[in-house]
UniProtKB/TrEMBL annotation:
Residues 125-223 form the OmpR/PhoB-type domain. Residues 125-223 bind DNA. This is Two component transcriptional regulator. The gene is manR. InterPro entries: CheY-like_superfamily, OmpR/PhoB-type_DNA-bd, Sig_transdc_resp-reg_C-effctor, Sig_transdc_resp-reg_receiver, WalR-like, WH-like_DNA-bd_sf.
Amino acid sequence: MSLLLVEDDPELAEPLTALLVHQGYQVTPVRDGQTAYTLAKQNTYDLLILDWMLPQLDGLSLCQRLRREGWTTPVLFLTARDGLTDRVQGLDAGADDYLVKPFAFAELAARVRALLRRPPGTATPTRLQVGTLVLEPEQRLAYRGQRQLVLSEKETQLLALLMQYPGQILSHAQLLAGLWPGESPADRNLLAAQVRLLRRKLEPPPEPPLIQTLYGRGYGLIHPGMGTSGV
């Protein structure tokens, strides 16, 4: 597995690179956002580990630019910005996960593994279809009619969960467990941010909505001709 590590602090970047290499990963360390952008466009990586505050091009802007250009590689933010607003902003920019400094390497390693592979026993079908909505999880591509949507890893996971239970409401707890398995419970605001990102791609005006919100309970995918019920 090939990782692009973007961290401008050598006191963190050097030991982190060594530890990841020891874990068996191929690591390309970079210290500024512009160089990272160039490498990301020229090469194929399995994961981008990204600091927020970087010279030349900050991590948030880098992530936003790559996502706008259709780059679907998972992104893990490493940052000292620990506020909920910061985490939501990072997810809005297209990040798949967010780890606050200082952190234990064991936790980082677990986050990396989770982003690089599906959790055991949760295989996703290679193709899902509900009405005119089609999802190909392996390619992180969805189609609403003739319109193609390029999704992030977390957007793909969220849509796959909803499409496997069309017409049903999945609780916040069910969705959080599916998106962040094996971790301490994530904040519902992070889930809401992921839903908002997915809606932007699925439901641009004037297209009718596909995701239903049941206040205080969860979310569901609207199925033509069906109501929604809890699961």
